[in-house]
C-alpha cells in the first residue's frame, strides 16, 4: 500500500496531451483556449466619447471662452467628422468618434444650451471624457492567454475582437463502467438486497461540469463479460473510470481482467480514507488511462476530486491552484492514513472556516448533500488545532 | 440620483416567483429543487458488509473461539441468506446483505483460510465492518431540501432514491436587447467608427452559466423600431435586459419608449461607478422586469452581478451568501459613489486577498480577462486599509 502523496504523484506522471479543435465562440464557454487571442485593432479603435455632451477644441480662442456655437450633432456609429471652426462645438453621444480638431468633451450636465450655443457651467480639463484610441490594448497585443478557461468575460472579449472560431483543447473521451450484480437502474424498484446505481450518475454529472459527456456501460459480475467489455472500451476511449470491483472480493474480476488485457497496474490500494482500494493503471497499447475507484459512493466522489480532477486539469494545462482553509474546530487524525474529511464552510470577516459534518462512513452518500468539500489530514500529524490551516478540496 | 443601497433594495422589491416544472433528473444539474427529496427506503436498506471477509455470530460459542467452518459465500446482490449454524461463518463480499444470525464481519486481511475453515488472527469487535440499516437516513427522511441548487452530489442522491423525475423551479424567459447604430455583428469587420457587439454575448454567456438560454434582439436607434420591438418583447418575456441607450444622449429613445409602453421607471442613475446610468423598471400590465444597463462593457458586467444575479437568486429563493474578502493593499474611495473595483485574488495560509488590477475605466473590456471579481467600496469611507475587509463579488 502506498501513501497518498506517492499515489497522487504516480497519477500525475500519466498525463495525456489533448488535441485541439475549432468551435464557434459562443460554444466555447467553459472550454480551455488552445491559442493566444490577439487584438485585431486598437481598443478603443478611435478616440471615443465617454459622455453625452459637446466636443470642443480646448485650446482654441480665449481660455476664458465658455460659449460654443453648435455646429451639429454626432451619434455613435457615425463616421468621423470635422469640427470646422475650432471656436464652435459639436454635440456628441457616448460611443461616438471624437471629431477632427476636437480634443475635449463636456457632458450635458455641465452645460446649458441656448439659441444654438452651448454655455459651459463648470471647470473643464483638456482631454476629459475621452477614452483614447489604443489605451486599453494596442492592435496585435495578447488579450487572452492560451490555456485560459473561457468564462463570460472571455466570451465578450472574443466577440469584440471578432474571433468567431476559437481553437480549444479537445476533451478526453471517457467511458464510465459500473459493475456489481447488486445494482439496479434508477427507474427500477430495488429488491431488499439490491441498491440503485448512483455512482455512475454522480460521475456523469461531475464530468458534465467539465463539459465532458461520458458514456456509461454496465458490466455484470462475469469474468468473460467484463473482459470483453473492457477490451472494447480500452480501444475507444482516452479514460476508463470504474467504480466497484476492486476490493478483495471473490467476485472482483477487474484487476485480473485488466492484467490479461495488457493494462499495467501502476498501483492498487492507497493509505487513505475514504478511497483506499483505488486501482490505477495504463493500457500500454493504447495509452488509455484507467481510474478504477472503490464502490462506496463517498470513496468514488472523493477520489474523483483528489486524483481525476487534478489529472484532468494538469493534462489540459490549466492552472490548478491548491488552496488551504482555516479550521473552525480541532480536527484529529489518529490513523496512519491520509483522511479526506467532509466539511461545511462558513465565512466570517473575510475568512472561510471549515467545520466537520455528521457522517456515517464512506457508504454515506446522503452526507454529501451537506458537504461543501473535503479537507486533507496528513497521517504524520495527529492534531490539527482550530485556526490552523489544512488543504481544502471544494466540491460545491 | 439614488445610492447603491437604495437602488439594490428597490430591485429586490421586484422579485418574481417562478413556476415549477418536472425534468428528468439527469437534466437537473444546476437547477433549483422545488420539492423536498425523501428517502424511499432506509439507507443503507439492509445491514450491509463494508469489507470482504467472513460474517460470523460474535456471541456464539466460546469467547476464545477463533475458528469458523465456512458454510458458503455471499456475493453482493444476493438475497438475504441464513447462517445455519451460529458456530460457522459465511464468506461475504462488500455490499452484500449480512446473513440472518450473523452480527460481525472479519475482513480477509485478518483471517487465514485452511481446509474449509477461517481462522481469525486479530482482535475483533462485535458489530464491526457492518453499515447498519437506516443509520445514514431512515425511510421518509428529507435527504435534499427544497431550494437546493443541484450539483453532482445531489444527482447521485436522486439516483439512489429513484427520483427519476424531479420538480425544479422554472427559469425566467429573458430577452437581451442591444441598441446602438455603432454596433456590428461579431463576424463582420467593423468600419473605423464602428465596434462589434460584445455586451450581448457576455450577458448571454453569464445567463448560460445559470442554465438560462436567453434570446437576443438588436434594435436600431429609431424610436418607432425601438417602441414596437419593446412592446412585443415585454409581452413574451419575464425579463428584458438591455445595454446602452439609457444615458442622456439625443438618440437614447429607450426611457421615452418605456414610458409610452407603460413601463414604470423605478429609478434611473445610481451613485456608483461603473454602472451609473442604470435604468430599472417594471411593466405594470405584464409584470415584466426591465434591467436596462449602461452601454460600457464593464458597467453592464458589474451591474449584471450586483443587481441581476442577486435578483435572480432571491427570486429562485437560493441562499445567496454575501462574502467579504481581505484586502491585500490599501484601497481608496475619494468619491461620493459606491465603487466596484476590479480585483485579482490570491490565497495565502488559508486566507484569500484582493489586489487591484491595472484598468482603464468602464470601457476597458479587456481588463476583465485579468479580473477575478469586484470589491465594493462605500462612499462613506475614504480609506480601506490593507488587511481590512470589503464585500466581494466573484466573477470567475
List the defining traits of the structure above.
homodimer, 396 residues, alpha/beta, Molybdopterin biosynthesis moea protein, domain 2, Molybdopterin biosynthesis moeA protein, domain 3, 6-stranded mixed beta sheet, 29 strands, elongated, MoeA-like (chains A, B), MoeA_linker/N (chains A, B), magnesium (chains A, B), molybdopterin molybdotransferase activity (chains A, B)
- Tell me the quaternary state: homodimer
Task: Record the strand order, biggest sheet of chain A.
Answer: 8-5-7-6-10-9
The CA-CA distance between the termini of chain A, in Å, is 30 Å
Name of the CATH architecture of the largest domain in chain A? 3-Layer(aba) Sandwich
Query: Greatest interface and its residue counts?
Result: A-B, 112 and 112 residues
Main beta-sheet strand count, sense and barrel state of chain A: 6 strands, mixed
pLDDT < 50 stretches of chain A: none
Number of helices of chain A: 6
Structural class of the helices, strands and pairings of chain A? Answer: alpha/beta
Compute the average pLDDT of chain A: 94
Number of strands of chain A: 29
Rg value of chain A: 31 Å
CATH class of the largest domain in chain A: Alpha Beta
Proportion of residues in β-strands of chain A? 25-35%
CATH level 3 topology of the largest domain in chain A:
Molybdenum Cofactor Biosythetic Enzyme, Chain A
* Number of structural domains of chain A: 4
Helix content class of chain A = 10-25%
What overall geometry of chain A do the principal axes of the alpha carbons give?
elongated
CATH superfamily of the largest domain in chain A: MoaB/Mog-like domain
GO molecular function (chains A, B): metal ion binding; molybdopterin molybdotransferase activity
Cofactor (chains A, B): Mg(2+)
GO cellular component, one term (chains A, B): cytosol
Enzyme class (chains A, B): transferase
Amino acid at each position: 500500500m502506498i501513501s497518498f502523496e506517492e499515489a497522487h504523484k504516480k497519477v500525475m506522471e500519466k498525463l495525456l496531451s489533448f488535441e485541439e479543435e475549432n468551435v464557434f465562440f459562443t460554444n466555447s464557454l467553459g472550454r480551455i483556449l488552445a491559442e493566444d487571442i490577439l487584438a485585431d485593432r486598437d481598443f478603443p479603435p478611435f478616440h471615443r466619447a465617454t459622455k453625452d455632451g459637446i466636443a470642443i477644441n480646448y485650446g482654441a480662442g480665449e481660455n476664458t471662452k465658455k460659449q460654443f456655437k453648435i455646429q451639429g450633432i454626432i451619434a455613435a456609429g457615425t463616421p468621423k467628422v470635422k469640427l470646422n471652426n475650432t471656436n464652435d462645438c459639436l454635440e456628441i453621444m457616448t460611443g461616438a468618434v471624437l471629431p477632427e480638431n476636437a480634443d475635449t468633451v463636456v457632458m450635458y450636465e455641465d452645460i446649458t444650451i441656448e439659441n444654438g450655443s452651448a454655455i459651459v457651467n463648470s471647470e473643464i480639463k483638456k482631454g476629459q471624457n475621452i477614452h483614447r484610441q489604443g489605451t486599453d490594448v494596442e492592435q496585435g497585443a495578447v488579450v487572452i492567454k492560451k490555456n485560459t478557461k473561457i468564462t463570460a468575460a472571455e466570451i465578450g472579449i472574443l466577440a469584440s475582437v471578432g474571433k468567431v472560431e476559437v481553437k480549444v483543447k479537445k476533451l478526453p473521451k471517457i467511458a464510465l463502467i459500473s459493475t456489481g450484480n447488486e445494482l439496479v437502474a434508477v427507474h427500477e424498484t430495488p429488491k431488499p438486497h439490491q441498491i440503485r446505481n448512483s455512482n455512475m450518475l454522480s460521475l456523469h454529472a461531475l464530468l458534465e461540469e467539465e463539459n465532458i459527456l461520458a458514456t456509461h456501460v454496465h458490466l455484470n459480475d462475469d469474468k468473460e463479460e467484463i473482459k470483453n467489455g473492457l477490451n472494447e472500451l480500452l480501444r475507444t476511449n482516452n479514460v476508463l473510470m470504474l467504480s466497484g470491483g476492486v476490493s478483495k472480493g471473490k467476485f472482483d474480476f477487474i484487476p485480473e481482467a485488466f492484467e490479461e488485457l495488457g493494462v499495467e497496474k501502476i498501483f492498487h490500494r492507497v493509505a487513505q480514507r475514504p478511497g483506499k482500494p483505488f486501482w490505477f493503471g495504463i493500457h500500454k497499447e493504447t495509452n488509455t488511462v484507467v481510474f478504477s475507484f472503490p464502490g462506496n459512493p463517498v470513496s468514488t466522489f472523493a477520489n474523483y476530486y483528489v486524483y481525476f480532477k487534478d489529472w484532468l486539469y494538469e493534462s489540459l494545462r490549466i492552472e490548478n491552484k491548491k488552496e488551504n482553509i482555516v479550521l473552525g474546530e480541532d480536527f484529529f487524525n489518529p490513523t496512519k492514513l491520509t483522511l479526506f474529511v467532509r466539511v461545511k464552510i462558513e465565512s466570517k470577516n473575510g475568512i472561510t472556516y471549515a467545520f466537520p459534518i455528521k457522517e456515517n462512513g464512506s457508504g454515506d452518500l446522503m452526507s454529501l448533500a451537506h458537504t461543501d468539500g473535503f479537507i486533507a489530514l496528513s497521517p504524520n500529524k495527529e492534531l490539527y488545532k482550530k485556526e490552523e490551516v489544512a488543504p481544502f478540496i471544494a466540491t460545491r
